[in-house]
Write a structure and sequence with these properties.
Blueprint (H helix, E strand, L loop, with lengths): L5 E6 L8 H6 L19 H4 L8 H9 L3 E3 L8 H9 L4 E3 L3 E2 H4 L4 E5 L4 E7 L5 H8 L10 E7 L8 E6 L3 H11 L5 E6 L4 H4 L11 H14 L6 E6 L7 H13 L3 E5 L13 H11 L8 E4 L1
Parallel strand pairs: 2-3, 3-8, 4-8, 8-9, 9-10, 10-11, 11-12
Antiparallel strand pairs: 1-2, 1-12, 5-6, 6-7
Helix pairs in contact: 7-9, 9-10, 10-11
Length: 303
């Protein structure tokens, strides 16, 4: 896994050697499980979270994201095995894969899996058609499928204070329903505003939100005002222009004004496929401009 799959966070106003600009200049250094990046200092999670009700969402976001090595969300990859493996190799924080809002709400059930010691969000078998039920029952590679599909599996021991739930959503009310379903089992809520895939964009999710600032901000506002706890709310976006940093800077500032506690920026624009090199120079200029504004005092995660 290269550094394009791992995010390194710092505040936009940080001028030390670990600033986003310095980190970006070294961002094409290849790392892997065999050649991991240097381990960062322990975050002292137990001490920090000793009185969690006394903490603000921004304080928690700063603790989770600043000076952290983060496993980025990857569809069909950021499941429990990869997340826990990354944590065992020194990752500070992990994201779930993007899960569409409706997939985690009813009829999905929250189940304590005593055998694995996990918390499972599972769609009961009886809610599927007879054809799908037969397929689940005959899945020899995954006998557990006979009990229904697992949408999200969380290891509360390994992932405690280290897990961000990422949702694909295009509507504030659906985002809130999904957030309220899982918020007690995760450490933060992230809205995917960067996925360029057809299934996401056609549903008004992912990078479709980059073209609708009002709706994007409304989702963040709705989550921040209504989740009923101090868990941080964040967003992951793409560059809005291949060269001009201003559209991305404006979008970030509006998300922060709406209540976002952290922003991750992927170094490609909407039309870029994964084989296209990230636009590092544009990303560097975005971070430089964000450093100029006092209203952006949240972690900016470089992806």
């Amino acid at each position: 896994m290269t550094t394009t799959s791992v995010s390194t966070a710092a505040t936009a106003g940080d001028d030390n050697d670990d600033s986003p600009i310095n980190l970006l200049k070294d961002s094409q250094t290849l790392h892997s499980l065999q050649n991991p990046p240097p381990l960062l200092p322990n975050n002292n999670d137990d001490d920090f979270f000793s009185n969690p009700s006394d903490l603000t969402p921004q304080e928690i976001a700063n603790h989770l994201f600043l000076n952290s090595e983060i496993l980025a969300p990857m569809v069909r990859a950021s499941t429990t095995p990869l997340r826990t493996l990354a944590l065992s190799h020194g990752a500070s924080l992990v994201y779930t894969e993007e899960l569409v809002d409706r997939s985690i709400t009813s009829p999905t059930e929250r189940i304590i899996n005593d055998e694995l010691g996990t918390i499972d969000y599972r769609v009961p078998k009886h809610t599927y058609s007879a054809k799908v039920q037969r397929r689940l029952e005959n899945d020899r590679d995954n006998p557990d499928a006979a009990n229904g599909a697992v949408i999200l599996r969380i290891d509360p021991t390994v992932e405690r204070h280290k897990l961000i739930y990422q949702m694909g959503t295009g509507e504030p009310n659906l985002a809130l329903d999904a957030a309220l379903t899982v918020v007690k089992d995760v450490d933060g809520l992230d809205v995917n505003m960067g996925c360029p895939k057809k299934f996401s964009v056609s549903g008004g999710m992912g990078s479709a939100l980059l073209g609708d600032m009002n709706r994007a901000c409304d989702i963040i506002k709705t989550l921040r005002r209504n989740i009923g706890c101090n868990k941080p709310v964040s967003a992951k976006i793409r560059l809005l222009d291949e060269e001009n940093p201003k559209p991305t800077v404006d979008f970030v500032r509006n998300l922060v004004k709406a209540g976002a506690n952290a922003i991750a920026i992927h170094g490609r624009i909407r039309g870029d496929e994964s084989h296209i090199m990230a636009r590092w120079e544009t990303l560097i200029n975005v971070v430089k401009e964000l450093k100029m504004y006092g209203d952006v005092s949240v972690p900016i995660i470089i992806n």
